[in-house]
Amino acid sequence: MALSRHAIDQAAGVATLPQGKAELLVARTLWVQAFEEWSERDYGRPERDAKVGMLPPKLARLMVNLAQTPRGQALLDPFCGSGTVLQEAALLGYGDLWGADASAAGIERSKTNLAWLKDKNPSLTADFNLQVADIKDLAAKLEEQRFGAIVTEPYLGPPLGGHEGEERLRVIQQQLVELYTIATSTLARLLEPTGRLVMVWPAFQGQSKLIELPLTIARTAGLVAERLLPTGVPAVWVRERGSLLYGRPGQRVVREIFVFRRA
To answer: Is the CA virtual torsion 112, 114, 120, 124 positive or negative?
Structure first.
């Protein structure tokens, strides 16, 4: 089959203008997303549980990168669920990885998935330290262990059907304040002095605005939110709270991503 010059140019990554134009544009493909690998680490893992929520691997990778922590420092996910944050950290070269979860079933899912990851990637040398621990007991169980990075997504609240009114959403918000107060306070104590806590907080889409958890939770724990976007970006991108939002249009629960450091 004969290929046209246009088809050959497209295959080579060269973009040309239609005939009659005086310019020639040359382009080169620099990076191609390994979408099959991302999909395998999400849907192809041996253990998944949609009932307890699923952190997308791409978001987990983004959060690990936001920690900006040297690879030699220890990293903790205290709500590790199926091990998504730990798997992405391992693939990025972190070696001293810790995970905890209040659910014994969650820890077993993590163990299975991380063993699978090592089988698929024999060059990985990460050590995974996993244990069943409620957030209230975690500091005592870890004793003197401290972390350069803590990257986590805690419980985001009950599944929503889409018909909940604003009053119901505010009730859920208040129910989560206690959990996030305990979690943030505990994790602040487990940070190295220069460590970072990258954490998802739930924000609920009300009728006119987002219903967010109060930032006094972090301030009381002695933490401040870092600005995540560089200066010079359009002002509409910048949130006063310093966070990034991750969600789809129409989604009732939006992930609010913070990077905290010690004040």
So the answer is: negative
